[in-house]
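Exercise 3.2. Students should predict the tertiary structure of the chain below and write it as structure tokens, then compare their answer with the key that follows.

Predict this chain's 3D structure.
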Amino acid sequence: MKWLRRGLYVLGGLLVLIMLVGAGGYLWLRSSLPETTGSIAVPRLGANVEVRRDADGVVTIRAQSDADAFYALGFVHAQDRLFQMDMTRRLSAGRLSEVIGASTVDIDEEMRILGLYRLAEASLARAPNEMRVTLEAYAAGVNAFLDSRSGALPPEFAVLGYSPEKWRPADSLVWGRLMAWQLSDNWPQELLRYHLAARLTPAQLRDLWPAPPADVLGIPQAEKPSGHAALAERLRDRGASNNFVVAGSRSATGKPLLANDPHLGLQVPVQWYLARLETPTLTLVGATAPGVPMVLIGHNGRVAWSFVTTAGDTQDLFIEKLLPGDPTHYLTPKGPQAFETRSEVIKVAGATDIAFTVRRSRHGPILSDAPSLGWTDPEQVLSLAWPGFEEDDGTAAALYRINRAGNADELLAAAYGFGSPMQNILYADTQGHIGFVVAGRMPLRTVNAASQMPAPGWTGDYDWKGYLQPDYLPQSVDPRDGWIATANNDIRPEDYGPFISGRWEPPYRYARIAELIEDTPVQTLDTLAAIQLDTKSVAAEEIAARLLDGIEPDSAPESPSSRALALLKAWDFHMGRDRPEPLVFTAWMAELDKTILSDKLGDLFADYASWNPGDSARLPESWCDDTGTPAVEDCKTQINKAWHEALDKLAAAYGQDPARWRWGDAHQAPFRHRLFDALPIVSDLLRDPIATDGDDATINRATPRRDFRSVVFPDVHGPGLRAIFDLADLNRSRFIIAGGQSGNPLSAHYRDFLERWRDGRYVELRGEGAEVLTLVPASR
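Answer key:
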């Protein structure tokens, strides 16, 4: 048995070697964590800068000049979020495939067609001198980290096998262009309704998606394309948010209180990074974005500001007819015209380069050239008009001035410079003023089908004629009611004339915010926090009132159907994670949508229903018949069918007793790492989903993803940031982000905010912290 003993020795030695290599690799990767104490000598710094971190990794930067402060912000952003910063600029520039490979070529092609990075470079050329100084100082700080670091890069770089390039000022500006693109989402709605028009009768289209005048295009039905690419992801994860402000007359302190919770796709690391910057001339406190030298949502000691997407319709798809037999020309009112073109080359890791031509019409880039749209029509293409394509977009410069506004009037003046995305800005100052303004460029044009369909591009009838003057956009200063709120709802005053949008978010969140503000005569930080965490679904209350009485009682009082029905009839419509009712209701609505809509919409069903949950509950009787069966079903039949199918699925997944079902068992925010989630073992180590409250219609928004096959509803979209500002003492302002300050999975601050974020616990950014790193000027 000597050979066996030797074999065991060899095997043991190999195991020890593997353990040593693994331990060494882990220790090496641990060296990617930032230095947070001591001093680091760096070039291009005017004087010593103190970087203080508290127990949560939140930084306070104290510098002798504004330029040095933003230099340090670039340094600490790179310390904590370098891979996120690099992926953002690569995504925006269409350069993901250089490091990831062929799987991201379609994304890169779409980004090259949009040309966002070219636009960022154009913005840099037009930037005010003082803003350019800030951008250059920030870039120098990022690069100082790259040059001074020792040890490993963050683990993602090791997995992909590359090192980041030096940071450029345009890399910071492209973040705004990308965010504007993600928040200006009318074009997928137009495209979806266009495809629906090819499948439904005009009457059905009016029922499903009212947009007067319905389907007025001047385009024969036969010319509408039959093929399409899935739009569900683009529509489901659209931007949404809440903000609300109360005047001193409604506040316990006699000064305004302002709250904001922007809703984006939930991800790790989150889009936000908390920071406090102090110089002799400037104090900035709040949420920054890694890669950007500004506070995006925050205060400067004198004013506080917040953002919500207006849901303004600032995009139009145009159908461009090609010159027959010549794809290089398209038809215009003045005759055939050549497309503007430019050549692009995408480098692909492990594969050959991909060269292609980007086309642009007089309306904008040819979006249908992107493979991700699945457009196959050989005779016409889709171009996109959008203010975000303007080289002179002033949004970044406007935000720069907002950061430095001395009072409400100066902030309002700065907001007038916004281009894209269109935003509802709520603000307050320490003098006691509150206000609201819609900021951004609103196109002036003849509206086609409430701007919910592509317009014919060859006629000139729907061409844009410029932009609405900023002071004509909705706004309010110190309203008599003493409060203002927006939640992507219709914000137009009564009898307001100019077109802003033909389709608004349902008013459920706004209505609930208004109710809670009016019900509390005196507001505090705690009452505003309670509003942000509110989980009552006005949508569920409205739908249940219409449908519950139609459920036929089960003859067995202890059956799952009887017990579930009793639960819903006694429900207070709060979407609490520890309750069964939200799960029953959500599963029922998913089944009802599938039962009523899937036969009519076919392969467009998921695109529409994932964006409009529970919409089938409002449709007329004619929609309830299943066209795939010989019988003629009525709505009561379909409501009961969906009810029992939902309950059968729930019982199979969660047991026979509805009282033991929990919304939080089905509704969890996964916070998956986009790279490591695909790796065995590593994905299991990093995956730690957290049960959450709320749904798509609650103030505490937690959009459930529905696949219409299972009764699992992951929380994929919600308030990655919550902030509440106290204008009586801005140091008492509260913040929380979903995740943590660090983007490094090995850091203790990678996910340490998650439970506090979920449970509505906040932190204050007072400038405290025991860990101090000093950046010192390198000797020349």
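Discussion points: The radius of gyration is 27 Å. Residues 176 and 396 are 7 Å apart (CA to CA).
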